[in-house]
Design brief:
296 residues, alpha/beta, Nucleotidyltransferase, domain 5, 6 strands
Length: 296
């Protein structure tokens, strides 16, 4: 778990190395808000959290796993449940999250605005709003950790996203290489995408993502009436990808030479070739090292 750290940092790594779990929640309302939210804690705390969460799942009335969508619609694991029993279960699970005090973070955007401003300009592989949120939440978390005085990197785990997740992760080392050294040092390795039925903290992230989106969809609602109200007691940071931010992103994309050549959906073969090219591309650091290396 802490392999590779020097003696001075080894004990600190056990206590301070963090893991962040993220999931998304999407609105069907007119604004079509998309939220990507996550919970961050130390490895040790997550291990204890998982035991407590599992015990809460099996406490009668028991469920095998928690999905907020199933809970809200009374389907899947919540099929044939009464709404009040559902709310009691959510309230109990939310109290488990609160007890383990993860700090929480969210990035959100109107898909309607993103699709109108960024999607027409963006290369096809990175045109989905999720990918913009994916990079934004990693960078926001690194900046927040810098302010908190955290000096070790974070390991990232996201709920499975299929090809969209692959397209997001493939650029990770490049996005990381473009950051200032102090931020780069706080960004961990390539994010993983896992099944939220197996990875229990992802179920907490799913609950948080729904809670944050509910806030955005219904700003006048009394949050204390929600079964997820306990999540309001956690440390929280957020960033919105506003129309102005999206416009800046689009303007920068326009400046990329030949960007129009990658705006169309590639064939399956073409996409694989493009992914291989991106994987083989040197990062900015690798390029600078190669450029500065004396010629023989």
């Amino acid at each position: 778990m802490v392999c590779g750290y020097g003696k001075a940092n080894r004990d600190a790594a056990v206590m301070v190395m963090f893991k962040a779990y993220f999931d998304d929640s999407c609105s069907d309302e007119e604004s079509k808000i998309l939220v990507l939210a996550g919970c961050v804690q130390s490895y040790k705390v997550w291990a204890n959290f998982s035991l407590a969460w599992e015990a809460a799942l099996v406490q009668p009335p028991s469920i095998k796993h928690f999905h907020m969508r199933e809970a809200r619609l009374l389907i899947g694991e919540f099929d044939r449940w009464k709404a009040e029993d559902r709310d009691d279960k959510i309230r109990f699970l939310a109290s488990i999250v609160e007890n383990f005090r993860p700090w929480t973070i969210a990035v959100w955007v109107s898909r309607k605005e993103h699709d109108a401003i960024v999607k027409p300009i963006s290369p096809y592989m990175i045109s989905h709003a999720y990918i913009s949120l994916f990079w934004a939440v990693i960078l926001k978390l690194a900046h927040w950790h810098q302010l908190k005085g955290i000096k070790l990197p974070v390991e990232y785990v996201f709920d499975e996203q299929g090809s969209i997740g692959e397209d997001a992760a493939i650029w990770h080392r490049h996005i990381k290489s473009w950051q200032p050294q102090e931020i780069k040092a706080l960004i961990g390795g390539t994010p993983k995408f896992e099944n939220d039925e197996w990875i229990l903290p992802l179920q907490a992230a799913d609950m948080l993502a729904w809670h944050v989106r509910r806030r955005k969809d219904r700003p006048d609602e009394d949050l204390s009436t929600l079964a997820t109200a306990a999540l309001e007691n956690l440390d929280y940071a957020e960033i919105q990808l506003t129309a102005d931010r999206l416009t800046t992103m689009a303007e920068k994309m326009k400046e990329v030479p030949h960007v129009e050549s990658v705006q169309q959906k590639p064939s399956r073969v073409g996409k694989k070739e493009l992914q291989d090219i991106i994987r083989a591309m040197p990062t900015q650091e690798e390029y600078e090292r190669k450029k500065s290396k004396p010629k023989e």
